[in-house]
Specification:
Structural class: alpha+beta
Low-confidence stretches: none
Number of helices: 10
Number of domains: 4
Helix content: 25-40%
Distance between the termini: 48 Å
Radius of gyration: 23 Å
Length: about 375
């Protein structure tokens, strides 16, 4: 597809947007110092067999072990065995990564280690979109893979206010849909619930079922776009607006059409007896809401505050006071800390504040 990738950079993080004809078409986060390990190939060690779960746990040298499903025709595994595996689903929602055997990988040493890194978020998005890659930081241009260098152009600002405003809508649980409709997105540990509402579309008047059907149908493409932009995954239940339960059954075909635009090929399984449209979408990378609420995601927001003060007061030397989880996340990301020194002209002064909640911060002048 044709589209320009706009890479807005801040210490440790690049926010990548495709914004065409006034609409946010794609979005991703790239944190070079904090990989989600998708696509990485490891030489891992089997730590435990789990026949009841149909697989085995494999240590990768990460915080959590990965899970390797075992099929009936796979070679048997033994505890303590070393083998090459690829991460095919990132660790998320408190669960470790999902693995797949990588028989052709060549180990670099006879112990647990990383053999090969997977594609970055920018690499993945660049494979979907043809066009320039606009980057507003020299530090990040040096990190872009050589295969993409001929498409890259350094610019003063990759985003304008329109792109910024469109991206900010992704943090709200309520989204605006065509023809006056809205939807509220509620993630839970088990599934994502989406409640559609006719809102202003039906204000002050009684609508016939045919009109209600058309409203829901016409809103599905925009709803699917938001599902993709936020990378919602797993089980997704959509509650259409205003239709009787029997009428909702006809919405399945309309949702299937809308889902054809999803690069992960989500499937509409059914319209349940309660009239809920049931969707399943592959879990690959963590959803946006989980990333932003994580210690590292909060740390990246804090660093944007620091850079903002440096830009407005070049002589100032801001100090970041933060809770324990946030300072721990920063300590584990040396790339982000190095970037702060480049952006501000001096190393970050980081103070651990036990009286702050773990994910809170304050920026003060030192």
């Amino acid at each position: 597809m044709k589209g320009t990738l706009r890479v807005a950079c801040s210490p440790g993080e690049a926010r990548i947007a495709v914004f065409e004809q006034g609409e946010l078409r794609d979005f991703g986060l790239w944190t070079p110092g904090h990989s989600d390990h998708f696509g990485d190939v490891f030489f891992g060690r089997v730590t435990a067999l789990a026949p009841a779960l149909g697989g085995a746990f494999v240590a990768l040298g990460l915080t959590e072990a990965g899970f390797l499903p075992i099929r009936e025709d796979d070679p048997p595994l033994h505890e303590g065995e070393l083998l090459a595996v690829r991460v095919v689903r990132c660790g998320m929602s408190g669960k470790g990564p999902r693995l797949k055997r990588e028989p052709d990988a060549i180990p670099l040493q006879q112990d647990v280690h990383l053999i090969k890194t997977g594609p970055s978020a920018l690499d993945e998005m660049a494979s979907r979109w043809e066009g320039e890659i606009l980057v507003d930081s020299p530090a990040f241009t040096a990190r872009i893979s050589s295969a993409l260098r001929d498409r890259m152009r350094l610019v003063p600002n990759a985003w304008d206010e329109s792109v910024q405003d469109a991206v900010e809508t992704l943090t709200s649980p309520t989204i605006t849909l065509p023809r006056g409709m809205t939807a509220t997105i509620t993630p839970t540990p088990a599934l994502v619930a989406i409640d559609m509402d006719t809102a202003s579309a039906s204000a002050g008047r009684v609508m016939k079922q045919t009109a209600q059907f058309a409203l829901n149908r016409d809103a599905f493409p925009a709803l699917v776009r938001h599902i993709c932009l936020r990378n919602l995954s797993g089980a997704i239940l959509v509650d259409p607006a205003g239709l009787s339960t029997p009428k909702r059954q006809a919405l399945r075909g309309e949702m299937e059409k809308a889902l054809q635009a999803d690069p992960l090929r989500a499937r509409c399984l059914s319209v349940t007896a309660l009239g809920l449209v049931e969707i399943v979408r592959a879990r690959v990378r963590p959803p946006l809401h989980e990333i932003l609420a994580s210690p590292h995601g909060r740390a990246m927001m804090a660093l944007r505050d620091v850079v903002s003060i440096c830009a407005g007061q070049p002589a100032a030397r801001p100090v970041l006071e933060a809770g324990l989880s946030l300072t721990s996340a920063l300590a584990a990301d040396p790339v982000a800390l190095e970037d702060v020194a480049l952006w501000c002209g001096h190393p970050l002064v980081l103070r651990d504040r036990s009286d702050l909640s773990p994910l809170s911060w304050n920026v003060v002048n030192g």
